From TrEMBL:
Task of the protein: Catalyzes the reversible adenylation of nicotinate mononucleotide (NaMN) to nicotinic acid adenine dinucleotide (NaAD).
EC number: 2.7.7.18
Name the UniProt record assigns to this protein: Probable nicotinate-nucleotide adenylyltransferase
Keyword Nucleotidyltransferase in record: yes
GO biological process: NAD+ biosynthetic process
Pathway it works in: Cofactor biosynthesis; NAD(+) biosynthesis; deamido-NAD(+) from nicotinate D-ribonucleotide: step 1/1
Keywords associated with the record: ATP-binding, NAD, Nucleotide-binding, Nucleotidyltransferase, Pyridine nucleotide biosynthesis, Transferase
A Pfam family this chain is assigned to: CTP_transf_like
Catalysed transformations (reactions): nicotinate beta-D-ribonucleotide + ATP + H(+) = deamido-NAD(+) + diphosphate
Family note: Belongs to the NadD family.
GO molecular function: ATP binding; nicotinate-nucleotide adenylyltransferase activity
Length: 211
């Protein structure tokens, strides 16, 4: 097969804190895989989220482990240690550059994350280069206002080349949220059917968010 005929790979990168991972995230990744004809989805738990210092955030290794437990049975899902092993804040631009280095030029990357994070991408580190390295898939829950996204499409004069490529994907299962799960655990309320069984068991075994 000639170089021209070689099929480009389509890689989904599911970026998030995953504190903890839940079924909303898993449904999002599966739907992106299907809608965007991705070859696989790499879950990328943030090491140190750039904009958070919250003490409720579990150590990166624990969030990584929970993500591995949740995705283990799906052959199209893998989990990366790239961000949790990097020191300093987890900037998406650094992750995308590393992935492009590892996978070579024949790869299209789709960065999948929550809409609340995506509409701020123009404020992320090195936004001008970031928007060239990936397309974005913004996952929303039904009823989410898309008003904010307009600013990504109407950029001030001279900045039009920074226009990000963003697709919106509505995911009903995103009514589930990590914040709600942490609160439930804290209040001894059930989390079965909101997270995979192994995730619920590990959270209980380690006593996360109890005090
Ligand atoms: P967040 O503010 O914790 O989450 C925003 C919203 O999106 C929440 O409702 C969250 O729900 C949801 N969400 C998060 N990840 C999701 C996913 N993969 N699929 C579906 N919904 C998701 O956002 P974050 O987790 O800190 O950041 C998201 C990604 O953007 C991370 O990869 C982060 O590194 C990247 N980011 C990069 C920069 C930068 O490079 N400067 C700045 C900000 C964010 P749950 O709470 O239920 O997950």
């Amino acid at each position: 097969m000639s170089q021209e005929e070689k099929k480009r790979s389509r890689l989904g990168v599911m970026g998030g804190t995953f504190n903890p991972i839940h079924y909303g995230h898993l449904v999002t990744a599966e739907e992106a895989l299907f809608q965007f004809k991705l070859d696989k989805v790499i879950f990328m738990p943030s090491g140190q989220p750039p904009h958070k210092t919250d003490r409720e955030i579990l150590p990166p290794e624990e969030r990584y482990l929970l993500t591995v437990i949740a995705t283990a049975s799906n052959p199209n899902f893998v989990v990366s240690r790239l961000e949790i092993e990097r020191t300093g804040p987890s900037y998406t631009i650094d992750t995308l550059r590393e992935l492009h280095e590892v996978y070579g030029p024949d790869i299209d990357i789709f960065f999948i994350t929550g809409a609340d994070a995506v509409w701020e991408i123009l404020t992320w580190k090195d936004a001008a280069n970031l928007v060239e390295l990936t397309e974005f898939i913004a996952a929303t829950r039904p009823g989410y206002s898309l008003e904010k996204f307009k600013k990504l499409h109407v950029l001030p004069e001279g900045q039009e080349k920074n226009k990000p490529r963003v697709s919106i994907m509505e995911i009903p299962a995103l009514a589930i949220s990590s914040t709600d799960i942490r609160m439930r655990v804290h209040e001894n309320r059930p989390i079965s059917y909101l997270v995979p069984e192994g995730v619920a068991n590990y959270i209980q075994k380690c006593g996360f968010w109890k005090d």
